Amino acid sequence: MKRPTQKDVARRAGVSRSTVSYVLNDQTQLKIPISDETRQRVMEAIDELGYEPDARAQSLRLGHTNIVGVIIPVIQNPFFWQILSGISDGLQEAGYSLHLSHHPLDFQQEANTIRQLRRQPVDGFILLAAAKYLLPGLADYLRQAGRPVVEITSAKAEFDHVVHAYTSGTRALMTHLLELGHRRIGFVYGTAREVQGFDRLLIYRDVLKEAGLSANNTYEVHCGEQLEEAYQAAYTLLNRPNRPTAVLVINDMLAIAVMRAASDLGLTIPGDLSVASFDDIPFASYTLPRLTTVSGMAESSGREAVRLLLNRLMEPDLPQQVTTAEVQLIVRESTGAACLPEKG
Fold first, then answer.
1. Spatial distance between the Cα atoms of 249 and 338, rounded to a whole number of angstroms
2. Cα–Cα nearest to 24, from 48, 123, 92, 34
């Protein structure tokens, strides 16, 4: 069935097409008088025909789309979906919708992402990663697009940004493990790029050094961001004769793989091994045992990014906006007192 047009509405209401346009756009400031009776006839015709305005045409005419482009680099990790939920809620409350683009660190996909963004006009962008971690073509596109950009990042960034750093949370988590008597503390560091988790890795090293345990960085293992990679790294680490008594994991998602590796080696958690991680994804409350983690308050971070973007849209000349997201250590059942005899 043919989609109804403004011309069809005008014909049904017995008015000109321009009158329909004025009513739809509520252009009461114009000097063309439109009576309440005429306005009512137009609205009734719209309802009867099921007419819907062309969003693209409206955006070109009004100069804005009420759509925000959200770029997500990782779709496997539920933590990013929690941030996305906060962004979505914040945008809906403000009368905006979102256009989601997945941007893995892949040069072929980069071209596809840029092509999609050019086809879908948006009022601004929210990045669930720092622009400096994107591939250069997409980062350049965002700089040249002439629209506001907000980054959710773990460090200083070039655009408005929410600093989502785990530095204080890592220190609190390491202190928790040291107070439980752990001295051999490992770190399964699974990232696509090493710098992506420096807000955790560097503090881990600092706390070990402060505790006189700097030699224990031999328990630091680096791997990719996939579950199997974390499993293999943890299996090798935990199979050592002088294995760690506790392990930090870069995120909750990979911590699940580490717990599986421990189980396959016959280790109990937390009896033989304490496991702790970061993000507080929903699964963290349902693993066996429940996972000790540092919560990044993901949904509130997403809402804060929306607030910064709306501020920038209303006042383009604002100085750079920077806010810091809160983090919180949540102690659950996966961490306990060190039980193995310590060895040199």
1. 17
2. 34
Domains of the chain: 6-53 (1.10.260.40), 65-164+298-326 (3.40.50.2300), 167-295 (3.40.50.2300)
For 39, counting Cβ atoms within 10 Å of its Cβ (0-12 exposed, 13-18 middle, 19+ buried), the class is middle
Q: Sign of the CA dihedral 90, 95, 100, 105?
A: negative
Q: Which amino acid is at 43?
A: M
Provide the pLDDT for residue 24: 74
Q: What pLDDT was estimated at residue 104? A: 62
pLDDT digits (tens, 9 = 90+) for 272-287: 999 999 999 999 999 9
How does the average pLDDT of the chain come out, rounded? 86
- Give pLDDT, residue 82: 92
| Sign for the pseudo-dihedral over CA of 137, 143, 146, 147 | positive
Q: 289: cis peptide before it, omega within 30°?
A: yes
Note the pLDDT tens digit of each residue in 114-139. 777 777 788 899 988 766 666 677 77
Q: Strand order of the sheet with strand 124-127?
A: 97-102, 67-72, 124-127, 149-153, 160-163, 322-324
Check if the beta carbon of residue 182 is closer than 8 Å to that of residue 307: no
- Of the chain, the end-to-end C-alpha distance in Å amounts to 80
Distance of CA 110 to the CA centre of its chain: 18
Q: Are 234 and 247 in contact (CB under 8 A)?
A: yes
DSSP letters along 79-120, please?
HHHHHHHHHHHHHHHTT-EEEEEE--S-HHHHHHHHHHHHHS
- Dihedral angle of Cα 80, 82, 85, 89, to the nearest 10 degrees: -120
Q: What is the pTM of this model?
A: 0.76
